[in-house]
Amino acid sequence: MADPRALFDLTGRIACITGASSGLGRRAAITLAAAGARVVAVARRADALQNLCAGIGANAAYVVADVADRGAQEALRDTVAAPFGAPDILIHAAGVNTRQPADDVTAEGWDQTLALNLSAPFFLSQALVPAMKARGWGRIVNFASLQTTRAFPGGIAYGASKGGIGQLTRAMAEAWSPFGITANAIGPGFFPTELTQAVFRDDARAARNAAQTCIGRNGRLEDIDGPLLFLCSEASCYVTGQILMVDGGFTAK
Question: What CATH architecture does domain 9-248 belong to?
């Protein structure tokens, strides 16, 4: 039997991570680099990306870009391939939550949310899939949410986008898995990130969320490492079209 640890070795792989300037996207870049991958971090904030890549070292590069700009997808495809070659791992961690109540949702807020959370993962994947097909190997990891299946106050636009991610993940798998490309999603519970600052600033609310889990606490950034590495590696070669909830059992109760 081969060494099971080799199943999680990403040496020789090239990963592109959007939303890598903070939160779970930043954590993803650090985790995949530690597993041997060369990583290209994509976000809008150059200073945060520079700091991230300085910490990782020579196996990291960054691209400053707005992934929601659909007209720039072809240029972005070429730019993210410039440092190390075309990525064979693509993680869509960029996201926004306007937290507008249903009666107050604006067209601008709705369009911004859908463009970044749902359209960008599809069109960037579409741009990068041909190189994965040529290799016969690829990993796409989308970010779902508790709101993929549940409705939260002030979350109608965000929830619609994350519900869409669930179906997008299944449709990606149907379209591209015959070519050796798996498409899955991680559904985080409540983790301390920029998107959830409002939640964690409210101690009572954070405590209620923790009590809703089976484990009895909210997420820590390191809780995402194993599930993410699994979905990006050879260990998950027969897993596709799935949403792996990393929520401490929040959705089980």
Answer: 3-Layer(aba) Sandwich (3.40)
**Regions of the chain short of the pLDDT cut 50:** none
Question: Considering the entire predicted model, what is its pTM?
Answer: 0.96
The residues that are catalytic are 158
Region of 97 please: left (phi>0), alpha (psi -120 to 50) or beta. beta
Pairing of strands 181-188, 89-92: unpaired
Q: Where are the domains positioned within the chain?
A: 9-248
pLDDT digits (tens, 9 = 90+) for 134-154: 999 999 999 999 999 999 999
Rounded CA-CA distance 215/219 in Å is 10
pLDDT tens string 196-246: 888 888 899 999 999 999 999 999 999 999 999 999 999 999 999 999 999
- Distance CA(33)–CA(62), nearest Å, equals 13
Question: What integer pLDDT is reported at residue 196 of this predicted model?
Answer: 82
